[in-house]
Each structure stands twice: as C-alpha cells, then as structure tokens.
Design goal:
Blueprint: E1 4-7, H1 45-51, E2 58-59, E3 62-63, E4 65-71, H2 74-78, H3 84-95, E5 106-110, E6 116-121, H4 123-130, E7 135-140, H5 151-154, H6 164-168, E8 175-180, E9 221-226, H7 229-234, H8 238-241, H9 255-264, E10 268-273, E11 276-281, E12 289-294, E13 296-297, E14 300-302, H10 303-316, E15 320-323, E16 325-326, H11 336-346, E17 350-354, E18 373-378, E19 382-383, E20 386-390, E21 395-396, E22 398-399, E23 414-417, H12 436-439, E24 443-447, H13 453-462, E25 467-471, E26 489-492, H14 494-505, E27 511-516, E28 520-521, E29 549-552, E30 556-559, E31 578-581, H15 584-601, H16 607-616, E32 629-630, E33 633-634, H17 637-640, H18 647-650, E34 655-656, H19 661-670, H20 675-682, H21 688-694, E35 705-709, E36 715-724, E37 730-737, E38 742-747, E39 750-753, E40 759-768, E41 778-788, E42 795-804
Parallel strand pairs: 8-12, 8-15, 9-12, 15-17, 17-18, 18-29, 23-24, 24-25, 25-26, 35-42
Antiparallel strand pairs: 1-14, 1-16, 2-3, 4-6, 4-7, 5-6, 10-11, 13-14, 19-28, 20-21, 20-27, 22-26, 23-27, 30-31, 32-33, 34-36, 36-40, 37-39, 37-41, 38-40, 41-42
C-alpha cells in the first residue's frame, strides 16, 4: 500500500524568484541612508534633502537627534494645507523658534507606508511636538542593518558572541540529510569555499541524472540522490507528467533548494527578493555538510520512495534527517516516516519533521512519533508593507514582495472590482473565470483559497487586470504569507478584507491604490504561532504532547532555482537566487540546522538528548517578554508545544531528558500496540506482557508532560529522569505552575548533581481537583521548571498538559 505525502509549504506555486535589486524605498528608514532613496510626490523634496545633510548641531545647548514622527492620516484630509509636505512642515513650524526655517530640519516626508516625517529635534522640541494634535507617535531613528534569511539573527545566532554558532563551530563536521524535491546545486548557498572535506564516515554518492553530474556536488553539497520508483508506478501517466521534472537530484519546484539552504546554506551577501529583505543569507548551520535525497515529484512524495531514501541515508552516514513532508496523523505502525525514523534514531540520527499545515484544526498535527522532533511554525518580526489606500482616504494594511517603485504606475489609483456570481469560482480568480470587460485596467480583489496565491495573479494579468488585492477569508484570519507576484499585488487579512469589501459595497465607483513600503524589521510582535501551523492534541497518543516546538516558518527567504524566475517583471529582475516561502516546511529546516549545531558541539549526545535540549530551552515568551500569541489569544501548548526554539540556550541546556530506543518499545506496549504492530515499527519481536511486568508504572522520559484523566481516574504518578550535561557540581530546585483544576506535587524538590553525565530521577503526583464533569473534553496547562541555584542561564522547562475525557 502506498501513502502519498505532501511537502509542507504554505506558499503558492511561486513563479520565479526575483533578483537582488536595491530596496524599493526608504519609507520607514529601516535601511542605511547612504542609499539615496528620497521618494515624494513633491518636487522640492530632493532639493530639501540636499540642503539638509547637516551633522548634529546644538540648539540652545540642546543636542539634536533624528526622530520619525507618525501622524494620523485623517489630519491631512481635514487640514487646509495644499500638500502633504506643507502639512508636515507645519508641525515643525509650531515646534521650532520663529527665526528658524522648518525645512532645514526635515529629512524625509513620508506618505506611503506611514503618514509622517523624519526630522532633527532637540529634547525640548520633541516634548512640544508630541503634544500637538494628530501626532500618533514619535520614535528615535535607529541604525538597522540589512538582513534576508534574517531568521538566524531573529534567533540570536551571531559569529561575534559566544553562542551556538561559535560553540559548535557553525555546525562543522555534521551532515544534514534533506528529504525533499532535490536541489539546485549552482545556488550560491551551496558554494564550498572554506568548507572542510566530508567526514571520514561519509559513504554517500553524487548520483548522476538529467542535467546533474557527479561534479555538481562539492564539499558543502556532499551527496545527492533521487528516488522515483514509487512515484513512477503510482502515477497514472508518468511519462506525460514528467515534462517539467528532472529525472535526477536536480530540483524542478524549488522547495528542496529552499529547505536545504535554510538548514545549512553558507553566507551569501547581497541576497534579496525583488530588493525586499536585502542582506546576508545564511542557513542555521552554515558550516554543516548537506546531502540531498529527492523523494518528492510533481504529484507528491510516496512512502516507498521516502523509506528508500531514509534507508540509504542511514547507510550514507547522515547525522540529522530533515523532512518537510507529511500529511494528516497516522497510527505509528501505518506511518512510513515514523517507521523509517525509528531506525534512524537507533543509529544515532536526529529526525526532524514538519508538523503540517492543517492548523488551526484541532488534532491535525502530523509526524507524531515520540522519537521524532515535530516542528510547528511561528512568525518573524519582519514585515513587507503594501498598504491599500481606498478612495475614501482610509487605509487597509497588507503585505507584498512586489517591487512597486521599480515599475511605472505600480501605485496608480484605479477602479476596484470583485467578480462574484455563479459557480465559476471567479471570486477565487481561477484562470479563465474573469471577464476581460469587467477587470481590464482595474484592481481585482481575489479571495484566498482553493488555487495557488501566485496563480491568482496570473489569472488577473491574463484577463487584463492591472493589479490584485488578495483577500484572506475567515479560515485564514490575519495570516500574512507574502509572495512575489507577476503584477502589482498585496495580501490583506480577513478583518481588513471585510473593511475593503464594505467600502466597495457602499460606494458607487470604488477606487484604490497600493502603496509599497519595502522592508520593516523589529516593529511587529513576534514570534506568534502561524495560523496554518498544525495543532495538537496528539490524535493517536495523548500521553505525548505534539508539536514539540515552533520555529520560524512565515515569509522565510532562502535559495531558489535560477530557472524559476517570475514573468511579467522587468528583465533585470528575473534572475533568481532567492525567494520567500511559508509553511511548517520552512520551520522544519530551522530546527534541523539547530540540531546540527548541537550535534557538532556534543557529538556523543543521542537524538533524544538533542531534542530535549531544544525543547527544555525553548522560549515561552516573545521578544517583548510577553506570552507567545496565537491570533488574538495566548498560544496554548497544543499550538506552541514547549515554545519557540532558542539555539543559544539549546547548545548549553544544563540538564537533558535522555531516552534509549528500548524505552520507546516499552512506550508502544503501554499504548496497547500488538506484537506485530510493534515489530512493524521497531523490527523487534517483543512480549508486551513481560515488558510491562518488568516496568510497572512506566512513563516515557519525555521532555514535556501530558496527563490524561479518563472517567473515574483522579490521580497519576509520572517519573522523569534528568542527566547533568552542565557544570560538574550543580544544584537544581523545582518550580511548578499547576494547571487549573489540578494539584501537582514533585519529589524530591531539589536535585544535587555531583558530576557530569550523572542521572537523577524525580516523581510527579498529578491530582485532579475538578468537581464537575462536562460531556466535552476539557484541557488545562501549566509548567514545571528546574532552576539552577548557581546561575540564571540553566532553566530546564517542561510544559504540562492535562486532559479530562
């Protein structure tokens, strides 16, 4: 029997990626100002700028500093000033002394992504300006550096501090095996300058095939293979459908190139997507080697091919397996990834898998085996604003990677149209469903869903539409996955879509323009759980909390095949090196790269130890110190698992929860699996009755804690075992945040470790105090943390999940 799997990305069929071109505009001053980016509708602004290049001066003894002033757009519509520039200067006129020309202080006049200006002010002037009507906020101008696969910086990875990169040698000596759609070996992310030779244990090959030679591999990309037999025999007309496929390890879709470079790509300067997110691209473990196993083809990934690849990868000598592949949850004995990964773990290989993109549906998380690290997706604090200014002067927030300022008339105000009616699917902008007479030369609103996001843009362009607004429906809420489209376009959240459609329904001739704002870093609250990220609870094993953690998976910029460039853009923007994608597919290789760093720093650690380090060091709060959010509410453990990955803490976790392969077998017995089912998974012929007698009260030594109270059960006893991997003499005290309706008692409350690798056990008594029962399943959550008495760094945290059935 075959199981079809899918690569877990939320991006639509990305049309080709854009080249590295200069940023589209400095609307938020988030890029260095040596680039002359002064955009305005006012002809005087360039002259003003040239006259304003003054260093800091002193005004009445008060030093000047540059500030960005955010204004309420309504103020402009109600003011009597002839232009935006005059309005902005009026604020300075009220703030400065009457003898000074306000234009001498103005740096930029903004009217696109924000309404406001940048100016030099003294502290006294700043206080006066803040008190004026229509001043929403005033922020000091900050120095920002250019970033692209900026996720490494978002995670705190740096070559200048003693963190995970330095401690692991950037992952050197570790081999990451990636099961995906193949690789584009010419990508600069796979250059091998400065890379050491493959480790002596490496036994892999560089398999030749269509447009792929043995010389395509190097010291970075040390292995490449393809597996097509399962796909070939299961496809209705394989020969007819293979036109766009390379029968080789070469990547024809881009997904595998993207994930491989995210996990272990080398540093590539001046990377961007149409000028957005410009900076240095780096994988999580830039010093690690990469081996690619192509198992996914035009219609998916077959279990036979996946198992064949895993089988070979184990023999090749990989240290980490990264699989951005999956579907819906399956019983472990029916899950080829779970089965293959058990063998890999037995051989000391960490297996990292995507959680799936079926969120926020409950119990949708896939790849649920306890020996797999299951990774959900979170957001970054990087945005690509593309604001819709409606004809009524109100603004709708959206995001886009389209290089607006680089094409003429990209921001022109046009008529809005939303084509509905019948069963043609025109509201989703299927190709061939948009009447040319209705959409030509207009901005077309397309509902998200059913067909690919980028495909909708192609449909609009083919019908003569001038631009597109991609509107989220209720199922996507405010999710903001961006794309590089073939025409001016932006994506808006559900709440904004309701506002836009309300305007259109109440206006005889609705009009709008899209204002592209480049790249903005650091202003959004992050991380948050991605709406699409699959959720728990674990459908087939409630005693194991899944997903394990979340990692960056929204709008991730990484390598892309150079033959997949977008059409419809200027010729000089079609060369492709990088593109943006979203999905747990993108989160998975982040965790895979982090696992490679830990393996390089601690080559003797087991896969369970590495996973424990990632989980117990994960962040429960966002970068502002507040709880990680899931939409408009704090994220539950079934969405976030143990938290958001923190590589600098994971490299030095202090304590780890280790698990031997034999313990997984006992765990399968506790689930009631039959002898044949357990053999299918483990290739071990065991007697569960005998094992359970020898291990009474057994609980798997998992880094998170999940308790299920069935009818009539009031109390559970759980045992855990911690191993010291920190300082030789360490003392830890426990801190418990009990779930609501539950009493938690831990004994002992202090663990005293006298040497490295010493293991100590503790027990947890979990007692339900709920007095009423409902017919519905109910949940509660808390946490248990072991705190090092001698330092603040080692905090070993485990989430607690309680379910009443």
């Amino acid at each position: 029997m075959f199981h079809e799997f899918h690569i877990l990305t939320r991006t639509s069929n990305m049309f080709r990626n854009p080249l590295q071109i200069p940023p589209a505009g400095c609307f938020h001053c988030n890029i260095p100002q040596h680039i002359p980016l002064y955009f305005s509708m006012e002809p005087k602004i360039p002259l003003l700028f040239s006259a304003l290049c003054f260093c800091l001066v002193s005004v009445s003894g008060d030093t000047l500093q540059t500030y960005i002033v955010h204004l309420h757009p309504q103020g402009l519509t109600t003011s009597l000033f002839p232009t935006k520039l005059h309005w902005h200067l009026s604020f300075l006129q009220q703030t400065l002394s009457s003898q000074e020309d306000p234009s001498s202080r103005l740096l930029y006049s903004y009217g696109s992504a924000i309404q406001g200006f940048a100016a030099q002010l003294s502290q006294t002037e700043l206080q006066l300006l803040r008190s004026l009507p229509h001043v929403v906020a005033v922020r000091p101008d900050r120095l920002h550096h250019l970033h692209t696969t900026y996720s490494y910086k978002f995670l705190g990875l740096s070559s200048t501090t003693n963190g995970a990169w330095v401690k692991s040698g950037f992952g050197r000596g570790t081999v990451i095996g990636v099961l995906d759609t193949g690789v584009w070996p010419e990508s600069p992310s796979f250059a091998d300058q400065g890379m050491p030779p493959p480790p002596k244990k490496w036994r892999g090959i560089c398999q030749e095939g269509q447009n792929f030679k043995a010389t395509s591999c190097n010291r970075k990309l040390i292995g490449a293979r393809f597996f097509i037999k399962g796909h070939h025999v299961s496809s209705a007309s394989p020969s007819a459908n293979m036109v766009d496929e390379y029968i080789s390890p070469r990547d024809s879709s881009g997904h595998g190139t993207h994930t491989s470079s995210t996990a272990g790509g080398v540093s590539v300067p001046m990377a961007s997507v149409l000028g957005n997110g410009a900076g240095v691209a780096r994988g999580m473990a830039p010093g690690a080697h990469i081996a690619v196993y192509k198992v996914c083809w035009f219609n998916g990934c077959y279990s036979s091919d996946i198992l064949a690849a895993m089988d070979v990868a184990i023999m090749d000598g990989v240290d980490v397996l990264s699989l951005s592949i999956g579907g819906f949850p399956l019983p472990l004995f029916d899950d080829s990834i779970a089965i293959g990964s058990f063998r890999a773990v037995e051989h000391g290989i960490s297996v990292i898998c995507a959680a799936g993109n079926s969120g926020p549906l409950q119990s949708s998380v896939a790849n649920i085996a306890p020996w797999i690290a299951t990774i959900g997706a979170g957001t970054l604090d990087r945005k690509f604003p593309a604001i819709v200014r409606m004809g009524n002067k109100e603004y709708v927030y959206g995001e886009s990677l389209f290089p607006g300022k680089w094409l003429p008339n990209a921001e022109k105000e046009l008529e809005l149209v939303y084509v509905t009616g019948g069963n043609s699917g025109s509201e989703f902008c299927f190709r061939g469903t948009l009447p040319k007479a209705k959409v030509q030369g207009k901005i077309v609103v397309c509902d998200r869903g059913v067909n690919g996001r980028a495909e909708k843009g192609v449909a609009v362009k083919e019908a003569g539409g001038a631009a597109m607004i991609l509107a989220n429906t209720e199922i996507n809420l405010e999710e903001d996955s961006v794309d590089a489209h073939v025409l001016p376009a932006t994506e808006i959240g559900y709440a904004e879509a309701v506002r836009l459609k309300t305007y259109m329904n109440t206006t005889r001739h609705p009009r709008a323009r899209i204002i592209f704002g480049g790249t903005v870093i650091g202003r959004a609250r992050a991380p948050e759980v991605a709406q699409f990220s699959a959720r728990g609870p674990n459908l087939y094993d409630a005693s194991i909390l899944k997903p394990d953690v979340i990692a960056p998976g929204v709008n991730i910029i990484a390598a892309w095949p150079q033959n997949l460039g977008p059409t419809g853009l200027p010729e000089d923007t079609r060369r492709v090196n990088f593109t943006v994608m979203s999905g747990t597919s993108m989160a998975c290789p982040h965790a895979s790269g982090i696992a490679a760093l830990i393996h390089s720093a601690h080559p003797g650690w087991t896969p369970a130890a590495i996973k424990s380090a990632i989980m117990t060091s994960a962040d429960a709060n966002d970068h502002r110190g507040k709880p990680i959010m899931d939409g408009n509410k704090p994220a539950a453990v079934f969405a976030v698992g143990a938290g958001h990955v923190n590589p600098n803490r994971a490299i030095d976790p202090g304590l780890i929860y280790d698990i031997r392969p034999d313990e997984y077998v006992i765990h399968l017995c506790t689930l009631g699996y039959t002898r044949s089912e357990i053999f299918t998974i483990t290739h071990r012929n065991v007697s569960c009755s005998g094992l359970l007698k020898m291990n009474r009260g057994f609980s798997l030594n998992y880094p998170s804690i999940s308790v299920v109270f069935k009818q009539g059960t009031k109390s559970k006893i759980i045992t855990r075992r911690l191993t010291n991997v920190g300082n030789p003499y360490s003392v830890y005290s426990v801190k418990v945040k009990s779930p609501e309706g539950v009493k938690v008692r831990v004994k002992p409350r202090r663990l005293i470790f006298k040497h490295i690798n010493q293991s100590l056990s503790y027990r947890i008594w979990v007692t339900s105090t709920k007095k009423t029962r409902t017919k519905k399943i109910s949940f509660a959550e808390g946490e248990l943390t072991w705190m090092n008495a001698h330092n603040n760094f080692h905090r070993v945290r485990s989430p607690i999940s309680v379910t009443w059935k």
